[in-house]
Design brief:
Elements (H helix, E strand, L loop, with lengths): L21 H30 L7 H16 L5 H15 L2 H21 L19 H9 L3 H9 L15 H8 L2 E2 L4 E4 L2 E4 L2 H8 L18 H6 L9 H8 L6 H16 L26 H17 L10 H11 E2 L19 H14 L6 E2 L14 E7 L2 E6 L5 E4 L2 E4 L8 E4 L2 E5 L3 E3 L10 E3 L3 H7 L5 E2 L8 E2 L1 H11 L5 E3 L5 E5 L5 E6 L5 E8 L3 E9 L9 E8 L2 E8 L1 E3 L12 E4 L9 E7 L7
Parallel strand pairs: 16-18, 20-23
Antiparallel strand pairs: 1-2, 2-3, 4-5, 6-7, 6-11, 8-9, 10-11, 12-13, 14-15, 17-25, 18-19, 19-20, 20-24, 21-22, 21-25
Length: about 625
C-alpha cells in the first residue's frame, strides 16, 4: 500500500505546488512586506492602548453603575438599559450634596491615584496659520452708525463715548496672529522689534479711550441677583444672543434697557468677546446698577480679559481667540514707527479715532514693502498730559499777525489759509518756536482727580499724570459684590468695619488664624485689628484641586507688601505656601500671574469645605 494507490487517496484534494516565476515572486514579496507593515501597525496600536491608562470616571458614573444594577434586579419587567439610565438620571438630580458625597469622594480618590501614577502629559506645540476670533469691530460700527443723537448722549454718559469714533471695520488677522505669538501673558508684554513693551490699563485708555481708573469690574455673584435680567434677555447656558441685542438696539429708546444692551453688545463683539458666539451672561452682574457703570475701571477689565483669553489660547484650551484683538492691532500701529526716527505724527486721543480702513490699508502696504511686521522702530509716544481736560488752553501766535486761542480737543487740528497744521507732542518748556508759529501752554493748576477721596494736592499739567499714577488716595472698591462703595484705602477700611463687620474675619498680625471656605465660597475678607488693612483670601477651582492666594486691597502703586503663610493639611500630609501679597484696588477677577497654593480635592472636608491656617505678618516686620 502506498500513497499513489488510487483506492486509498483522492488526488483531487492534494495541493499542487509550483515553482513561482520572477513576477510571482516579486508580488509575494510586496504582499509580504505589506502584511508585515500592517501587522506592525496593529501591534503598535495594541501596545499603545495597553500603555495608556483610561481616564477615571466621574461621580455620576459610579452612582449610575450601582443604581442600574439595583434597578435591573428590582424591575425585571423593565426593557433595556435606556429606562434604567433614565431612572438613574432622575434620582441623581434629586440627591443633595451630602447624598452625593460618597460617590464624589470615591471619584476624587481615583482621580488623585490616576494623577500620581500617570506619566506627565507633554502638550503638543500649537501651529495655527488661520486666526479664529469673535472680535468684530464691523458689527459694532454698523450699530453705532444707526444710533440716534439721544442714544449717543447716553453712550457718552456711561463713559463709552470713544466707541462712537470707531472707524475700523475689519481686523488684520495676519498681524493679530503675529502679535499673539509674541504676547507674553505672564509679563503682560509684547516682545517685538527686539524690545519688550509692557501693557497697562493706561495703554488701553490711550488706544481705546476707556477709563483706566475706578472700581474693579466684578462679573460674579449670586445667580439669583441676575435671574430677572437673564430672563429678560432669554439667556441660556451658552449665553445671550448677539442678534437679540441687535434687535433691541434698533429701537429708538435711550433708557436703561438701551444702555445695558449697548454695553453687552460692545463687550460681546469688540471689547471682551469670548471663544463663543454669544455674550457671556456673567456680564449682567456689573450691569445691575446702571448708574455706577461710569465708575468702573474698564481699561483694567479689558486688559485682564485679554490676557486671560490669550493665555487659554496659548495653552491649547480653545481654538478661537477671545479678548479685544483690535486693541493689540492699534497698539502695534501706535508703538512701532515705520517712517524713521525723525518723523512724527499728530497726537490723537483716543487712537481709535485715527485708524480707518484707508489708514490701515496704507500702513499694511508699508509693512509689506519693508519686509513684514516687526521691521520698524519702537517709539515711546505719549499723549499730552491733560489732553482730556478742557481747562488747558493753547495759544497760537504769529499766524498772519493774528492770535488764536482754542481748547484742546481729542483731535486737535488748527487751520489757517487752507493749510492744516498738526500739533505734535508738547515740550517741557512754556513755549516752542516752530517756523513762524509760537505755541504757549499756560501753566494752569488743577486738583488731583482723587480729591473726593482725600487728596489735597494741586498740580500742573507737567506733574499731574505722574502724581495720579502713584497717588495713595487712589480709589479702592468694596470687595463685596452687592456693595458699590468706592473710596481711599483708609475710607474703605472704615466703611467695611462699620457696614460689613459681620461679613469677614478679623485677625492679628503674626498670629495664625484658622479659616474655612465652603464649596461655593470664592473668597474671604480678612481685616487686621491693628490698622484695619483689608486682605482677601481668594479661592479658585481647577481640574485637580483648589488654588488659593492672599491679596491686599490697596492702590496698585503702593509699595507696601505683607508676608503671608498658608497651610493646608490632612492627616500626616500638609501643604504650605509662604509669599508676599500683591496690591489690587478691589477683589481680583480670575487669578493674575502670582504665587498660589494648589490643594488637591482629597484635602477637602466631607462637605467640600476647605480648611486653612493663615498667618499675615506686619509689613514693618519685614525689615
Amino acid at each position: 500500500m502506498s500513497l499513489t494507490d488510487p483506492q486509498l487517496v483522492d488526488c483531487s484534494i492534494i495541493p499542487v505546488f509550483q515553482v513561482p516565476n520572477e513576477e510571482d515572486a516579486s508580488m509575494l514579496g510586496v504582499n509580504g512586506e505589506e502584511n508585515v507593515v500592517s501587522e506592525g501597525k496593529r501591534m503598535k496600536k495594541k501596545r499603545k492602548k495597553q500603555v495608556s491608562a483610561p481616564r477615571p470616571a466621574c461621580s455620576w458614573v459610579y452612582f449610575s453603575r450601582e443604581f442600574i444594577k439595583e434597578y435591573s434586579a428590582s424591575h425585571p419587567e423593565s426593557s433595556g438599559l435606556k429606562a434604567a439610565t433614565k431612572a438613574a438620571s432622575d434620582a441623581w438630580k434629586l440627591m443633595n450634596v451630602e447624598e452625593k458625597e460618597k460617590y464624589t469622594r470615591r471619584a476624587r480618590e481615583v482621580w488623585d491615584d490616576y494623577l500620581s501614577s500617570a506619566p506627565a502629559r507633554i502638550p503638543k506645540p500649537r501651529k495655527q496659520t488661520k486666526l479664529v476670533t469673535r472680535c468684530s469691530p464691523g458689527r459694532l460700527l454698523n450699530v453705532v452708525q444707526r444710533l440716534t443723537s439721544e442714544q449717543k448722549d447716553a453712550v457718552k454718559d456711561m463713559g463709552f463715548g470713544s466707541l462712537l469714533s470707531l472707524r475700523c471695520r475689519t481686523l488684520r488677522r495676519s498681524l493679530c496672529l503675529w502679535l499673539l505669538e509674541r504676547f507674553n501673558t505672564a509679563r503682560r508684554s509684547l516682545e517685538i522689534c527686539g524690545e519688550r513693551i509692557h501693557l497697562s490699563p493706561k495703554d488701553v485708555e490711550h488706544v481705546m479711550g476707556l477709563a483706566a481708573y475706578g472700581k474693579d469690574v466684578v462679573n460674579s455673584g449670586p445667580d439669583d441677583l441676575i435671574a430677572d435680567l437673564r430672563n429678560s434677555y432669554n439667556a441660556t447656558n451658552r449665553g445671550i444672543s448677539v442678534r437679540l441685542l441687535e434687535e433691541r438696539l434698533a429701537a429708538p429708546e435711550a433708557g436703561e434697557d438701551f444702555k445695558r444692551s449697548f454695553i453687552l453688545y460692545a463687550l460681546g463683539t469688540l471689547l471682551s468677546p469670548t471663544a463663543r458666539l454669544d455674550v457671556s451672561p456673567s456680564f449682567l452682574h456689573f450691569l445691575i446698577n446702571m448708574d455706577a457703570v461710569h465708575q468702573y475701571n474698564w481699561g483694567k477689565f479689558l486688559l485682564d480679559r485679554l490676557v486671560r483669553e490669550v493665555s487659554r489660547f496659548h495653552q491649547g484650551k480653545q481654538r478661537a481667540v477671545g479678548g479685544c484683538l483690535l486693541f493689540l492691532q492699534l497698539f502695534y500701529y501706535e508703538s512701532v514707527s515705520i517712517e524713521g526716527a525723525g518723523s512724527f505724527s499728530p497726537i490723537v486721543a483716543p487712537c481709535l479715532s485715527s485708524w480707518g480702513e484707508e489708514e490701515i490699508t496704507e500702513r499694511e502696504k508699508r509693512e509689506r514693502e519693508l519686509g513684514g511686521y516687526g521691521c520698524g522702530e519702537v517709539i515711546r509716544k505719549k499723549s499730552c498730559p491733560g489732553m482730556e481736560f478742557p481747562e488747558y488752553r493753547v495759544q497760537v501766535e504769529g499766524l498772519s499777525g493774528g492770535n488764536m486761542s482754542t481748547g484742546i480737543e481729542p483731535n486737535p487740528v488748527f487751520e489757517q489759509d487752507m493749510t492744516q497744521i498738526s500739533v505734535a507732542n508738547f515740550p517741557k518748556s512754556k513755549g516752542m518756536m516752530c517756523g513762524d508759529m509760537e505755541m504757549i501752554v499756560e501753566p494752569d493748576r488743577t486738583a488731583c482727580r482723587n480729591k473726593e477721596y482725600g487728596c489735597s494736592e494741586t498740580l500742573d499739567y507737567m506733574t499731574k499724570n505722574d502724581h495720579e499714577e502713584t497717588c495713595l488716595y487712589a480709589p479702592c472698591a468694596c470687595p463685596l459684590p452687592n456693595c458699590d462703595f468706592v473710596g481711599s484705602s483708609e475710607q474703605l477700611s472704615l466703611h467695611f468695619s462699620s457696614k460689613h463687620w459681620d461679613a469677614g474675619r478679623r485677625f492679628r498680625y503674626n498670629i495664625p488664624l484658622a479659616v474655612s471656605l465652603g464649596m461655593n465660597e470664592q473668597f474671604l475678607v480678612l481685616q487686621a485689628e491693628e490698622d484695619g488693612v483689608l486682605f482677601i483670601l481668594n479661592k479658585g477651582v481647577e481640574t485637580i484641586g483648589n488654588i488659593v492666594m492672599v491679596t491686599c486691597i490697596a492702590p496698585s502703586s503702593s509699595k507696601e507688601n505683607f508676608l503671608y503663610d498658608l497651610v493646608s493639611g490632612k492627616g500626616i500630609s500638609s501643604l504650605r505656601l509662604k509669599s508676599l501679597t500683591d496690591n489690587f484696588p478691589g477683589r481680583v477677577e480670575g487669578f493674575p500671574p502670582m504665587d498660589f497654593l494648589l490643594i488637591p480635592f482629597r484635602f477637602l472636608g466631607p462637605s467640600g469645605e476647605l480648611k486653612l491656617e493663615v498667618c499675615i505678618w506686619n509689613s514693618t516686620e519685614l525689615g
